[in-house]
Amino acid sequence: MQWDTLPFSELTTPCLYAVLRLRQQVFVVEQNCAYLDLDDLDQQSEHILCWRGSKLVAYQRCLPPGLVYSESALGRIVVCPTKRGQRLGEALV
Questions:
Q1: How far is CA 29 from CA 34, 70, 72, in A?
Q2: Which of 42, 66, 72, 83 has the smallest set of CB atoms within 10 Å of its CB?
Q3: Whole-structure pTM over 0.85, yes or no?
Q4: Are strands 2-7 and 55-63 parallel, antiparallel or unpaired?
Q5: Are the C-beta atoms of 68 and 44 separated by less than 8 Å?
């Protein structure tokens, strides 16, 4: 597994596509939660990504203090459905 922590400006197009796809797969489709995922916070956040080969298996974004709350915040924490039960969420957080 490979872990990356990147600002939005360093997410490549294929990487960003993988992030948005995983978030939609879980939050919109699996959890049946229709909401605006693209909320203009990604550009100011750090992104933690876990890759197994070329597949994104876990992800979260870290919002800096003052962006939404006075303190920093974690959000969009997600683990690929086929990789759950492997403690990736625990390692991510």
A1: 8, 31, 28
A2: 66
A3: yes
A4: unpaired
A5: no
CA distances 57 to 2, 3, 47, 79, Å, are 10, 10, 13, 6
Q: How far is CA 82 from CA 22, 55, 85, 87, 88, in A?
A: 11, 11, 9, 12, 11
Structure token pair of residue 67: 């962006």
Closest CA to 1 of 58, 51, 55, 49: 51
Closest by CA position to 2, among listed 48, 51, 38, 46: 51
Cα of first residue to Cα of last residue in the chain, in angstroms, is 16
Distance separating alpha carbons of residues 90 and 40, to the nearest angstrom: 26
